[in-house]
Protein backbone atom coordinates (compact mmCIF):
# COMPACT_ATOMS: atom_id res chain seq x y z
CA UNK A 1 0.00 0.00 0.00
CA UNK A 2 1.33 3.41 -0.87
CA UNK A 3 2.08 5.86 1.90
CA UNK A 4 -0.34 8.77 2.43
CA UNK A 5 2.36 10.99 3.92
CA UNK A 6 2.87 12.94 0.76
CA UNK A 7 -0.15 15.23 0.78
CA UNK A 8 -0.47 18.60 2.41
CA UNK A 9 2.62 18.05 4.57
CA UNK A 10 4.82 18.09 1.48
CA UNK A 11 3.51 21.49 0.44
CA UNK A 12 4.17 22.93 3.88
CA UNK A 13 7.61 21.38 4.09
CA UNK A 14 8.60 22.58 0.66
CA UNK A 15 7.61 26.14 1.50
CA UNK A 16 9.74 26.07 4.65
CA UNK A 17 12.82 24.23 3.44
CA UNK A 18 13.40 24.76 -0.28
CA UNK A 19 14.71 28.33 -0.02
CA UNK A 20 17.71 27.38 2.10
CA UNK A 21 18.04 23.59 2.14
CA UNK A 22 20.80 23.20 -0.39
CA UNK A 23 22.09 26.78 -0.57
CA UNK A 24 25.52 25.80 0.79
CA UNK A 25 26.30 23.13 -1.79
CA UNK A 26 29.92 23.28 -2.92
CA UNK A 27 30.39 23.19 -6.69
CA UNK A 28 33.03 21.00 -8.27
CA UNK A 29 35.55 22.42 -10.72
CA UNK A 30 33.56 21.01 -13.64
CA UNK A 31 29.96 21.26 -12.39
CA UNK A 32 28.01 19.95 -15.38
CA UNK A 33 30.61 18.09 -17.43
CA UNK A 34 29.90 14.40 -17.69
CA UNK A 35 27.70 11.57 -18.84
CA UNK A 36 25.06 9.77 -16.86
CA UNK A 37 25.18 5.96 -17.10
CA UNK A 38 22.11 3.82 -16.42
CA UNK A 39 21.90 0.02 -16.31
CA UNK A 40 18.60 -1.30 -17.68
CA UNK A 41 18.13 -4.77 -16.17
CA UNK A 42 15.19 -5.88 -18.29
CA UNK A 43 16.59 -4.58 -21.58
CA UNK A 44 20.11 -5.82 -20.79
CA UNK A 45 21.54 -2.51 -21.93
CA UNK A 46 23.57 0.41 -20.63
CA UNK A 47 22.07 3.81 -21.37
CA UNK A 48 24.58 6.58 -22.08
CA UNK A 49 22.78 9.82 -21.29
CA UNK A 50 23.50 13.48 -21.97
CA UNK A 51 22.25 14.84 -18.62
CA UNK A 52 22.13 18.48 -19.73
CA UNK A 53 20.05 17.76 -22.84
CA UNK A 54 18.07 15.19 -20.88
CA UNK A 55 18.23 12.52 -23.56
CA UNK A 56 19.69 9.09 -24.14
CA UNK A 57 22.60 9.11 -26.59
CA UNK A 58 22.91 5.34 -26.91
CA UNK A 59 21.71 2.06 -25.43
CA UNK A 60 24.62 -0.37 -25.54
CA UNK A 61 23.75 -4.09 -25.33
CA UNK A 62 25.58 -5.54 -22.33
CA UNK A 63 27.36 -8.80 -22.98
CA UNK A 64 26.09 -11.53 -20.67
CA UNK A 65 22.93 -12.37 -18.76
CA UNK A 66 21.83 -9.34 -16.77
CA UNK A 67 23.79 -6.52 -15.20
CA UNK A 68 22.39 -4.47 -12.32
CA UNK A 69 25.11 -1.98 -11.40
CA UNK A 70 27.77 0.12 -13.14
CA UNK A 71 30.97 1.96 -12.27
CA UNK A 72 32.71 4.58 -14.42
CA UNK A 73 36.46 5.01 -14.74
CA UNK A 74 37.84 8.29 -13.38
CA UNK A 75 38.99 9.37 -16.86
CA UNK A 76 35.44 9.04 -18.19
CA UNK A 77 36.48 6.61 -20.92
CA UNK A 78 34.87 3.35 -19.81
CA UNK A 79 31.94 1.82 -17.94
CA UNK A 80 32.19 -1.43 -15.99
CA UNK A 81 29.07 -3.60 -15.56
CA UNK A 82 29.15 -6.74 -13.37
CA UNK A 83 26.95 -9.44 -14.91
CA UNK A 84 24.89 -10.68 -11.99
CA UNK A 85 22.53 -13.28 -13.44
CA UNK A 86 18.84 -13.71 -14.11
CA UNK A 87 17.45 -14.03 -10.58
CA UNK A 88 16.97 -12.06 -7.40
CA UNK A 89 19.27 -12.18 -4.38
CA UNK A 90 19.30 -15.63 -2.80
CA UNK A 91 16.96 -17.09 -5.42
CA UNK A 92 17.78 -19.91 -7.87
CA UNK A 93 18.86 -18.92 -11.36
CA UNK A 94 21.83 -18.43 -13.65
CA UNK A 95 24.91 -17.20 -11.81
CA UNK A 96 26.97 -14.51 -13.49
CA UNK A 97 30.77 -14.66 -13.52
CA UNK A 98 31.93 -11.74 -15.69
CA UNK A 99 32.34 -7.97 -15.79
CA UNK A 100 31.60 -6.24 -19.09
CA UNK A 101 33.70 -3.20 -20.10
CA UNK A 102 32.06 -0.62 -22.37
CA UNK A 103 34.03 2.01 -24.26
CA UNK A 104 32.10 5.26 -23.85
CA UNK A 105 33.59 6.93 -26.90
CA UNK A 106 32.75 4.18 -29.37
CA UNK A 107 29.67 3.19 -27.35
CA UNK A 108 30.45 -0.48 -27.71
CA UNK A 109 31.58 -3.43 -25.59
CA UNK A 110 35.38 -3.38 -25.37
CA UNK A 111 36.06 -6.50 -23.31
CA UNK A 112 34.72 -8.98 -20.77
CA UNK A 113 36.59 -10.08 -17.65
CA UNK A 114 35.99 -13.61 -16.39
CA UNK A 115 36.08 -13.83 -12.60
CA UNK A 116 37.07 -17.50 -12.79
CA UNK A 117 33.91 -19.03 -11.35
CA UNK A 118 30.21 -18.23 -10.86
CA UNK A 119 30.15 -15.34 -8.37
CA UNK A 120 27.00 -13.30 -8.92
CA UNK A 121 29.05 -10.09 -9.05
CA UNK A 122 26.95 -7.06 -8.22
CA UNK A 123 28.07 -3.82 -6.57
CA UNK A 124 31.04 -2.14 -8.27
CA UNK A 125 33.13 0.76 -6.95
CA UNK A 126 36.42 2.26 -8.11
CA UNK A 127 38.64 2.99 -5.11
CA UNK A 128 39.39 6.72 -4.82
CA UNK A 129 43.00 5.95 -3.94
CA UNK A 130 44.34 2.94 -5.86
CA UNK A 131 41.93 3.27 -8.85
CA UNK A 132 41.24 -0.45 -8.80
CA UNK A 133 37.73 -1.78 -9.27
CA UNK A 134 36.16 -3.53 -6.29
CA UNK A 135 33.21 -5.82 -7.07
CA UNK A 136 31.05 -7.77 -4.63
CA UNK A 137 30.86 -11.53 -5.29
CA UNK A 138 27.84 -12.93 -3.48
CA UNK A 139 28.42 -16.64 -3.96
CA UNK A 140 32.00 -16.56 -2.71
CA UNK A 141 31.39 -14.17 0.22
CA UNK A 142 34.06 -11.87 -1.08
CA UNK A 143 35.03 -8.70 -2.94
CA UNK A 144 36.98 -9.21 -6.15
CA UNK A 145 39.68 -6.66 -6.90
CA UNK A 146 40.25 -5.91 -10.59
CA UNK A 147 43.23 -4.15 -12.17
CA UNK A 148 41.58 -1.96 -14.86
CA UNK A 149 44.78 -1.69 -16.87
CA UNK A 150 45.57 -5.41 -16.97
CA UNK A 151 41.84 -6.15 -17.02
CA UNK A 152 42.06 -9.09 -14.67
CA UNK A 153 41.28 -10.10 -11.10
CA UNK A 154 44.32 -9.52 -8.92
CA UNK A 155 42.96 -10.11 -5.42
CA UNK A 156 40.03 -11.29 -3.32
CA UNK A 157 38.92 -9.86 0.03
CA UNK A 158 36.59 -11.82 2.35
CA UNK A 159 33.33 -10.36 3.66
CA UNK A 160 32.59 -13.23 6.09
CA UNK A 161 28.89 -13.12 5.15
CA UNK A 162 26.60 -14.54 2.47
CA UNK A 163 24.90 -12.39 -0.17
CA UNK A 164 27.32 -9.45 0.01
CA UNK A 165 25.38 -7.35 -2.45
CA UNK A 166 26.33 -3.67 -2.40
CA UNK A 167 29.57 -1.93 -1.53
CA UNK A 168 30.93 1.43 -0.42
CA UNK A 169 34.56 2.47 0.12
CA UNK A 170 35.77 5.29 2.38
CA UNK A 171 37.30 8.33 0.69
CA UNK A 172 40.77 7.37 1.94
CA UNK A 173 40.41 3.88 0.49
CA UNK A 174 41.13 2.20 3.83
CA UNK A 175 37.71 0.78 4.68
CA UNK A 176 35.05 -1.06 2.70
CA UNK A 177 31.53 -1.89 3.81
CA UNK A 178 29.20 -4.43 2.23
CA UNK A 179 25.48 -4.93 2.74
CA UNK A 180 24.75 -8.64 3.17
CA UNK A 181 21.14 -8.99 2.10
CA UNK A 182 19.77 -12.26 3.49
CA UNK A 183 22.05 -12.16 6.51
CA UNK A 184 20.76 -8.70 7.42
CA UNK A 185 24.25 -7.49 8.28
CA UNK A 186 26.95 -5.01 7.26
CA UNK A 187 30.57 -6.14 6.94
CA UNK A 188 33.24 -3.61 7.91
CA UNK A 189 36.52 -4.44 6.17
CA UNK A 190 40.13 -3.32 6.44
CA UNK A 191 40.99 -3.13 2.73
CA UNK A 192 44.79 -3.02 3.07
CA UNK A 193 44.99 -6.01 5.39
CA UNK A 194 42.09 -7.85 3.72
CA UNK A 195 40.52 -8.39 7.12
CA UNK A 196 36.91 -8.24 8.29
CA UNK A 197 36.80 -5.96 11.32
CA UNK A 198 33.16 -6.63 12.21
CA UNK A 199 29.95 -8.13 10.88
CA UNK A 200 27.28 -5.78 12.20
CA UNK A 201 23.73 -7.09 12.80
CA UNK A 202 21.03 -4.77 11.46
CA UNK A 203 17.82 -6.62 10.62
CA UNK A 204 16.50 -9.83 9.06
CA UNK A 205 17.09 -8.27 5.65
CA UNK A 206 19.01 -5.27 4.32
CA UNK A 207 19.70 -4.07 0.77
CA UNK A 208 21.51 -0.92 -0.32
CA UNK A 209 24.23 0.99 1.51
CA UNK A 210 25.78 4.47 1.63
CA UNK A 211 28.60 6.22 3.47
CA UNK A 212 28.71 9.83 4.66
CA UNK A 213 31.09 12.29 3.03
CA UNK A 214 33.20 12.44 6.21
CA UNK A 215 33.38 8.60 6.46
CA UNK A 216 31.91 8.66 9.99
CA UNK A 217 28.55 7.03 9.23
CA UNK A 218 27.31 4.15 7.12
CA UNK A 219 23.63 3.87 6.25
CA UNK A 220 21.40 0.96 5.26
CA UNK A 221 17.62 0.72 5.12
CA UNK A 222 15.89 -2.05 7.05
CA UNK A 223 13.85 -4.09 4.56
CA UNK A 224 11.41 -5.38 7.19
CA UNK A 225 10.15 -2.01 8.47
CA UNK A 226 10.40 1.69 7.59
CA UNK A 227 13.59 2.64 9.37
CA UNK A 228 17.18 3.52 8.57
CA UNK A 229 20.09 1.98 10.44
CA UNK A 230 22.94 4.44 11.06
CA UNK A 231 26.28 2.78 11.79
CA UNK A 232 29.16 4.51 13.58
CA UNK A 233 32.34 3.61 11.68
CA UNK A 234 34.49 4.16 14.78
CA UNK A 235 32.67 1.56 16.87
CA UNK A 236 31.31 -0.56 13.99
CA UNK A 237 27.93 -0.71 15.68
CA UNK A 238 24.46 0.66 14.99
CA UNK A 239 24.40 4.15 16.48
CA UNK A 240 20.74 4.94 15.93
CA UNK A 241 17.67 3.91 13.95
CA UNK A 242 15.74 6.62 12.15
CA UNK A 243 12.01 6.27 11.37
CA UNK A 244 11.21 6.64 7.67
CA UNK A 245 7.89 7.36 5.92
CA UNK A 246 8.17 4.05 4.06
CA UNK A 247 10.66 1.21 3.58
CA UNK A 248 13.81 2.64 2.04
CA UNK A 249 16.00 1.27 -0.73
CA UNK A 250 18.75 3.10 -2.62
CA UNK A 251 20.25 6.17 -0.96
CA UNK A 252 22.93 8.79 -1.43
CA UNK A 253 24.39 11.54 0.79
CA UNK A 254 24.97 15.05 -0.48
CA UNK A 255 28.63 16.04 -0.77
CA UNK A 256 28.22 18.85 1.76
CA UNK A 257 27.36 16.23 4.39
CA UNK A 258 24.03 17.81 5.30
CA UNK A 259 21.46 15.43 3.84
CA UNK A 260 20.77 11.85 2.80
CA UNK A 261 18.33 11.14 -0.02
CA UNK A 262 16.43 7.84 0.27
CA UNK A 263 14.34 6.10 -2.40
CA UNK A 264 11.02 4.48 -1.46
CA UNK A 265 9.91 2.11 -4.26
CA UNK A 266 6.50 1.27 -2.82
CA UNK A 267 5.40 4.91 -2.48
CA UNK A 268 7.16 6.30 -5.58
CA UNK A 269 9.01 8.91 -3.59
CA UNK A 270 12.39 10.14 -2.40
CA UNK A 271 12.69 11.45 1.15
CA UNK A 272 15.28 13.94 2.36
CA UNK A 273 16.88 13.20 5.73
CA UNK A 274 18.63 15.96 7.67
CA UNK A 275 21.85 14.34 8.95
CA UNK A 276 22.14 16.75 11.89
CA UNK A 277 18.65 16.32 13.29
CA UNK A 278 18.27 12.78 11.89
CA UNK A 279 14.73 13.64 10.84
CA UNK A 280 13.06 13.38 7.45
CA UNK A 281 12.30 16.90 6.29
CA UNK A 282 10.04 16.10 3.34
CA UNK A 283 9.50 13.79 0.40
CA UNK A 284 9.50 14.29 -3.37
CA UNK A 285 7.22 12.34 -5.70
CA UNK A 286 9.00 10.51 -8.57
CA UNK A 287 7.90 7.97 -11.22
CA UNK A 288 7.18 4.34 -10.37
CA UNK A 289 9.59 2.23 -8.35
CA UNK A 290 12.66 4.40 -7.65
CA UNK A 291 15.78 2.31 -7.17
CA UNK A 292 19.11 4.10 -7.03
CA UNK A 293 20.11 7.72 -6.37
CA UNK A 294 23.18 9.51 -7.73
CA UNK A 295 24.22 13.01 -6.65
CA UNK A 296 25.89 15.07 -9.38
CA UNK A 297 29.46 16.11 -8.44
CA UNK A 298 28.44 19.77 -8.03
CA UNK A 299 25.92 18.78 -5.31
CA UNK A 300 23.05 20.56 -7.07
CA UNK A 301 21.24 17.72 -8.85
CA UNK A 302 20.16 14.20 -7.92
CA UNK A 303 19.34 11.48 -10.47
CA UNK A 304 16.88 8.73 -9.52
CA UNK A 305 16.49 5.56 -11.60
CA UNK A 306 12.85 4.48 -11.77
CA UNK A 307 12.52 0.80 -12.59
CA UNK A 308 8.93 0.46 -13.78
CA UNK A 309 8.69 3.79 -15.58
CA UNK A 310 11.82 3.31 -17.74
CA UNK A 311 12.93 6.77 -16.68
CA UNK A 312 15.44 8.72 -14.63
CA UNK A 313 13.99 11.54 -12.53
CA UNK A 314 16.13 14.67 -12.28
CA UNK A 315 15.78 16.47 -8.94
CA UNK A 316 17.03 20.02 -8.50
CA UNK A 317 18.41 20.06 -4.97
CA UNK A 318 18.02 23.81 -4.69
CA UNK A 319 14.29 23.88 -5.45
CA UNK A 320 13.74 20.31 -4.18
CA UNK A 321 11.59 19.30 -7.12
CA UNK A 322 11.71 17.10 -10.21
CA UNK A 323 12.75 19.27 -13.16
CA UNK A 324 12.78 16.68 -15.94
CA UNK A 325 12.32 13.00 -16.74
CA UNK A 326 14.81 11.20 -18.98
CA UNK A 327 13.62 8.16 -20.95
CA UNK A 328 16.00 5.21 -20.67
CA UNK A 329 15.29 1.44 -20.69
CA UNK A 330 13.19 -1.16 -18.93
CA UNK A 331 14.34 -2.02 -15.44
CA UNK A 332 16.41 1.15 -14.95
CA UNK A 333 18.60 0.54 -11.92
CA UNK A 334 22.34 1.14 -11.41
CA UNK A 335 23.72 4.65 -11.98
CA UNK A 336 27.19 6.12 -12.44
CA UNK A 337 28.68 9.47 -13.41
CA UNK A 338 31.38 9.48 -16.09
CA UNK A 339 33.39 12.73 -16.09
CA UNK A 340 33.80 14.20 -19.56
CA UNK A 341 37.16 15.94 -19.12
CA UNK A 342 39.09 13.25 -21.01
CA UNK A 343 36.40 12.06 -23.39
Secondary structure elements and their pairing?
Blueprint: H1 8-17, E1 35-40, E2 45-50, E3 55-61, E4 71-72, E5 78-85, E6 95-103, E7 108-114, E8 121-126, E9 133-137, E10 142-147, E11 152-158, E12 164-169, E13 175-180, E14 185-190, E15 195-201, E16 210-211, E17 217-221, E18 227-232, E19 237-243, E20 251-253, E21 259-264, E22 269-274, E23 279-285, E24 290-295, E25 301-306, E26 311-316, E27 321-327, E28 332-338
Antiparallel strand pairs: 1-2, 1-28, 2-3, 4-5, 5-6, 6-7, 8-9, 9-10, 10-11, 12-13, 13-14, 14-15, 16-17, 17-18, 18-19, 20-21, 21-22, 22-23, 24-25, 25-26, 26-27
Task: Describe the 3D structure.
With 343 residues, the chain is mainly β. It has one domain: Methylamine Dehydrogenase, Chain H (7 Propeller), CATH 2.130.10.10. Helices cover 3% and strands 49% of the residues. It is built from one helix and 28 strands. It has a four-stranded antiparallel β-sheet, with no helix packed on it. A hairpin with a 5-residue loop joins strand 17 and strand 18. The radius of gyration is 19 Å and the shape is globular. 50% of the residues are buried.
Count of alpha and pi helical runs: 1
Q: Might you state the CATH topology name?
A: Methylamine Dehydrogenase, Chain H
How far the N terminus sits from the C terminus, by CA atoms, comes to 45 Å
Describe the main β-sheet briefly: 4 strands, antiparallel
Low-confidence stretches: 1-31
What's the CATH architecture name?
7 Propeller
Q: In which order are the strands of the major sheet placed?
A: 3-2-1-28
Q: Provide the gyration radius in Å.
A: 19 Å
pLDDT average, as an integer? 91
CATH class (first level) name: Mainly Beta
Amino acid sequence: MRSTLYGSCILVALAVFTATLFSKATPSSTPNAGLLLVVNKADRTLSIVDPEAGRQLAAVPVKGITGHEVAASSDGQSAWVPIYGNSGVGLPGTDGRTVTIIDLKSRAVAASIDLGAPNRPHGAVFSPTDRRLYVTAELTRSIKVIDPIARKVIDSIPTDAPESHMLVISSNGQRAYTSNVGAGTISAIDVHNKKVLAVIPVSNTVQRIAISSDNRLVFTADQTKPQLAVIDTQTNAVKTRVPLPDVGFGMAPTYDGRHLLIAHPSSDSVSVLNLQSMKVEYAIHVPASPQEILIRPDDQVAYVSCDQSKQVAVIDLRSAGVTKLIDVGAGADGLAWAPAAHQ
